[in-house]
Amino acid sequence: MDPSQLSGLDLSKVPSHAIRPKGVPCVGNKADGCWWSCDQCKAPTDVSRCPGPKQWGLTFDDGPSGNTTALLDFLDQRNIKATLFIVGSRVTDNPDILRRAYKAKHQIAIHTWSHTALTSQSNEQIIAEMSWTQKIIKSAIGVTPLYMRPPYGDIDDRVRGVLAAMGLKVILWDRDTNDWRLNFGNPTNYNPAWISGNETKWIDATVRGEDNPITLEHDLTVEGIREAMTVIPRITDAGISVLPVGECLKDSRWYAEDDGSELRTSSAGAISSAISSTCRSERGWYATVGLMAVYTIVMFVL
Ligand SMILES: [Zn+2]
After folding, report:
1. Where are the transmembrane segments (predicted)?
2. Which of 211, 218, 251, 258 is catalytic?
3. CA 153 to ligand 1 centroid distance, Å
4. What is the Å distance from ligand 1's center to 62 Cα?
5. Fewer CB within 10 Å: N-end or C-end of the chain?
6. What would the pLDDT profile of 253-288 be if each residue is shown by its tens digit?
7. Is residue 1 included in any domain, yes or no?
8. CATH number of the structural domain spanning residue 52
9. 84 lies in a domain?
10. What residues sit around ligand 1, an ion, with C-beta below 5 angstroms?
């Protein structure tokens, strides 16, 4: 990793829970360190719902991909903004799509560099996953995201400690659309109609004031985006405000460059004009950063 990524970080308060190698099962009903992957344990600092009333935090993970463009077209047509959790390594191929999303006032957030399970990573590897993703996003849009979501929801108190030291806010979800299952061609153990049925329940609960969900969706596959296009109009038609998470939280600091003085809104977001002309179309630079980050992460894995 770049040693400068460690400078200024105080890791003294990071709990010392052991690294959990991928595939290690959760034993019993509880795990130490509030390990979400074991028992869906959430810490008080994990955000998984909007404060309401009648709010719906709309989030998409795993882009930017070639399919993200169709989603952005749809959201533009309806003037709906979302939070997009970005996989850093995918920015190398799709910087223009990320730039378009930012200009359209969607909230840009972090979803690691390599989409790895963070509890399987050392503290230094976690920092590298976050820092390289922040760096490539800043190179594309000029700002540094402060919101993140762990892939697979895989987080425990050690990971939370590292992320807190970096000043990052953890966003989980309380409603999983399971849209990623659509990509498997309607397997016998999954019925696509369940998504629609679940969404109907969530909409009804939100209208009744019993829920203000943050939903988990993906902009990686055609099937997932098609499902979002079907469901989102039903949410707005029910009178529910569909918002980026940062907006439903009334948080004025989505990015490190924000001075906190201006509240972002979907209709009049305080989008910085920081997209530097020097950052445009520098694909060679992206390739260099990508290779350096992969090299760094591989070095720590080995
Ligand atoms: Zn993901």
Report:
1. none
2. 218
3. 8
4. 5
5. C
6. 999 999 887 777 665 433 333 444 334 444 555 555
7. no
8. 3.20.20.370
9. yes
10. 61-62, 151
Is 6 within a domain?
no
Domain encompassing residue 127: 35-259+278-301
Alpha carbon of 220 to ligand 1 centroid (Å): 9
Residues 66, 194, 178, CA angle at the centre, nearest 5°? 40
Whole-number Å distance between alpha carbons of 15 and 13: 6
Res 2: pLDDT: 74
Query: Is 218 labeled as catalytic in the residue annotation?
Result: yes
In a domain, 18, yes or no: no
- Alpha-carbon 10 to chain mean position: 24
Q: Which tokens is 120 given?
A: 């399987």
Which tokens sit at 167?
A: 């000043």
Note if 111 is an active site residue: no
Ligand 1 centroid distance, CA of 108 (Å):
14
Cα–Cα distances (Å) from 32 to 11, 152, 156, 164, in that order, read 19, 18, 8, 19
115 Cα to the center of ligand 1, angstroms: 6
